[in-house]
């Protein structure tokens, strides 16, 4: 089937086999199989959509007004569905149940999306609780479909904002330090660390004060005032006591190993607070694990393996998480040192530093890719590097990769995972100050960013992007004449 020419919104049930006949000329379609009545009913009777266009300016609509708008539109769509069902007496109960809960999912998702149209981009807790109530009432078994999964993700994100986030200007961020007291209590009970209840209380108060300090910093745009606020906090007696406690060898190691898992703990606690079934918990926690593994590009440590073993009851989902773990584990013994480069640490001028890095490649075109292990579009682009290498092979191009703010192990693993090695490939993971100096010199403000240098090491005044391969090849071909 040519998916570029058609799109069909349907639902498929596990264990069933479906065949779809689609007439591209007329646009008619039909499902075939032993149990495909629901799918054909969805083709014949599309579920009425909820009008999701919002009136008013963004961030200006009061939350109560937004809720009234959304409720009215949901009831309108629900009425249209009821009329549609009444017109056709042959519509199955299965269709009626699925369509009803599909509308509920859409309504609940629209409530959460409506948060972006109200003050501070966040709904009051009572509205989030209403979404949670709807989410719990959606009947089984037609729940594990795209819109339900999207609703679950949005609900978890919103719950995480309300329970764990810190207001940072006009947005919200997560301070891992907020979770330190829980980790200290857990590992004290397990006997892994030596710490008193009084010391845990000190760290708990320090984390609360750090949260308040962060909010204050984002309330001003004056850099000197921000520095003054931070210094006052850092020099306080409480901060000094707390940092001494968490800096102790056994505690510091534990926090370092546990910090990557905090998003998984958040997901676990939110799933518990939402009253999820074990099946739902397995899905939510597994997704959190997979997102963490993809983001960090590192195998699980002993804490992560233990958490996956005890928190994911589904063997299928647990194995999926462990398979990703093994993928990154398998990269550890691969030697890529020949492609990893360093620069003199005493160089701070961005232009001079870049010229020093480019010097060995005089006589060749150099394509610079500035990326980061934290950047999803960057990693998507790296996954297609083989296509770039093959297309540009005739032009003797050097590929220069410079990583922004990237942990060393994640950086190396992504290089290995995407096979970014070779005589014409060089990787730099410079100290933050040097990387920033080069980025400022090249006026880099987004990631990934690409720059092209001619055979004399001069920056070519043309916009290039490795993701637009046809255009890139055309430019390089012209320069190679």
Automatic annotation (TrEMBL):
It comes from the Bacteria. This is TlpA family protein disulfide reductase. The keyword Disulfide bond applies. One of its GO terms (biological process) is cytochrome complex assembly. The lineage of its organism: Bacteria, Pseudomonadati, Bacteroidota, Bacteroidia, Bacteroidales. It is found in: Cell envelope. Pfam families: Thioredoxin_8 (PF13905). It comes from Segatella copri. InterPro entries: Thioredoxin-like_fold, Thioredoxin-like_sf, Thioredoxin_domain, Thioredoxin_ResA/DsbE_sf.
């Amino acid at each position: 089937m040519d998916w570029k020419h058609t799109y069909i919104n349907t639902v498929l049930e596990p264990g069933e086999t479906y065949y779809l006949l689609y007439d591209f000329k007329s646009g008619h379609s039909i499902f075939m199989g032993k149990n495909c009545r629901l799918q054909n009913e969805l083709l014949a009777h599309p579920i009425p959509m909820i009008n999701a266009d919002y009136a008013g300016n963004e961030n200006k609509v009061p939350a109560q007004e937004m809720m009234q708008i959304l409720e009215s539109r949901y009831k309108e769509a629900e009425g249209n569905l009821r009329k549609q069902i009444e017109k056709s007496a042959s519509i199955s109960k299965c269709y009626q149940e699925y369509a009803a809960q599909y509308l509920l999912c859409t309504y609940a998702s629209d409530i959460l999306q409506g948060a972006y149209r109200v003050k501070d981009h966040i709904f009051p807790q009572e509205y989030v609780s209403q979404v949670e109530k709807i989410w719990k009432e959606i009947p089984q078994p037609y729940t594990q479909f795209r819109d339900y999964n999207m609703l679950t993700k949005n609900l978890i994100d919103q719950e995480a904002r309300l329970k764990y986030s810190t207001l940072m200007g006009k947005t919200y961020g997560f301070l891992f330090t907020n979770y330190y007291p829980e980790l200290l209590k857990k590992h004290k009970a397990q006997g892994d660390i030596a710490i008193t209840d009084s010391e845990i209380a000190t760290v708990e108060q320090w984390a609360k004060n750090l949260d308040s300090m962060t909010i204050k910093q984002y309330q001003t745009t004056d850099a000197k005032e921000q520095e003054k606020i931070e210094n006052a906090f850092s020099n306080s007696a409480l901060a000094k006591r707390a940092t001494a406690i968490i800096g102790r060898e056994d505690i510091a190691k534990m926090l370092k190993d546990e910090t990557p898992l905090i998003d998984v703990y958040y997901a676990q606690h939110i799933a518990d607070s939402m009253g999820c079934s074990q099946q739902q918990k397995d899905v939510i926690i597994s997704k959190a694990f997979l997102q963490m593994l993809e983001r960090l590009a590192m195998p699980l440590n002993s804490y992560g393996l233990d958490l996956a073993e005890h928190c994911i009851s589904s063997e299928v989902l647990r194995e999926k998480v462990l398979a990703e773990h093994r993928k990154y584990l398998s990269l550890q013994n691969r030697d890529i040192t020949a492609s990893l480069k360093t620069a003199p640490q005493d160089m701070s001028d961005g232009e001079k530093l870049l010229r020093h890095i480019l010097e060995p490649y005089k006589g060749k075109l150099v394509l610079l890719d500035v990326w980061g292990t934290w950047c999803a579009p960057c990693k998507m682009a790296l996954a297609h590097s083989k296509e770039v290498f093959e297309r540009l092979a005739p032009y003797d191009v050097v590929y220069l990769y410079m990583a922004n703010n990237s942990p060393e192990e994640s950086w190396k693993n992504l290089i290995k995972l995407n096979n970014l090695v070779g005589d014409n490939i060089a990787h730099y993971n410079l100290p933050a100050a040097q990387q920033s100096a080069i980025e400022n010199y090249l006026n880099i403000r987004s990631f990934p960013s690409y720059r092209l240098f001619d055979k004399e090491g001069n920056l070519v005044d043309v916009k290039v992007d490795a993701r637009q391969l046809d255009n890139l090849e055309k430019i390089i071909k012209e320069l190679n004449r």
